Amino acid sequence: xxxxxxxxxxxxxxxxxxxxxxxxxxxxxxxxxxxxxxxxxxxxxxxxxxxxxxxxxxxxxxxxxxxxxxxxxxxxxxxxxxxxxxxxxxxxxxxxxxxxxxxxxxxxxxxxxxxxxxxxxxxxxxxxxxxxxxxxxxxxxxxxxxxxxxxxxxxxxxxxxxxxxxxxxxxxxxxxxxxxxxxxxxxxxxxxxxxxxxxxxxxxxxxxxxxxxxxxxxxxxxxxxxxxxxxxxxxxxxxxxxxxxxxxxxxxxxxxxxxxxxxxxxxxxxxxxxxxxxxxxxxxxxxxxxxxxxxxxxxxxxxxxxxxxxxxxxxxxxxxxxxxxxxxx
Length: 329
Hints:
Elements: H1 2-29, E1 50-51, E2 54-55, H2 61-75, H3 78-101, H4 109-116, H5 136-141, H6 156-174, H7 177-186, H8 188-198, H9 210-227, E3 247-254, E4 258-259, H10 260-267, H11 271-276, E5 285-286, E6 289-296, H12 300-328
Antiparallel strand pairs: 1-2, 3-6, 4-5
Helix pairs in contact: 2-9, 3-6, 4-9, 6-7, 7-8, 7-9, 10-12
């Protein structure tokens, strides 16, 4: 009996001390040690929406649900959207400029978000590559060089020009930007078959591969969010956005195989710097031919003045290395 009273007294004292400690903590810090579960914000879809000037029939339940799915998946992916915003600040201005010059709808820029999230080194299991995810056959059809040395699908400006050419051809073929963008995903042959077989030429009325149907709605979700990211809690400081890349362009003829270290030496920079601003170069060297390459801003004239001597110096150094190896044998 004594032991029971002792145990109860001990528990009571401990509980009392705990309560005192809690009140003391609240009094001193002004904060409760008890964590409360945050409320997940809820975001409504816009009342109306268009893609490339074509209205999205949000009054249809199936269309609204498809969009809702992609919007919810995207809007709560905080890391992804922040990276979209950072990269878009770098790459969207160029795309927007070229779309305006070609009199094409500005919404086409959201396709590159769906394709690659604006990553240069984006590769798919099916063999697509680059920010616009060109397959090799289509890339070559739109005059992109793809071989053992060069893969222009990874060159942002060249790939963007090819993508806009392709969109233009698809629009001429199908007469709808939404259908053209869907065909960019599934291919014009598949789109032709579905339009003919179903006797429907409106995207929202076509039964297409699920990936293609999601493709358009993913682009719409990106448009909704990136048009007004602050409405969804995204406020990336301007200083944290990635600035557009600035570089000079050099045009030259390589009479033989050239190592990138020679170009770097002529510009007074590093092999790595040349490789990173010319992602289309697959190896450490380029074969004989004519080239238009990027070099660091302000180094084009330096390259012209130093390239020949850099090649000669590299050749002499290689000869000396070979002679030393022969002596060591």
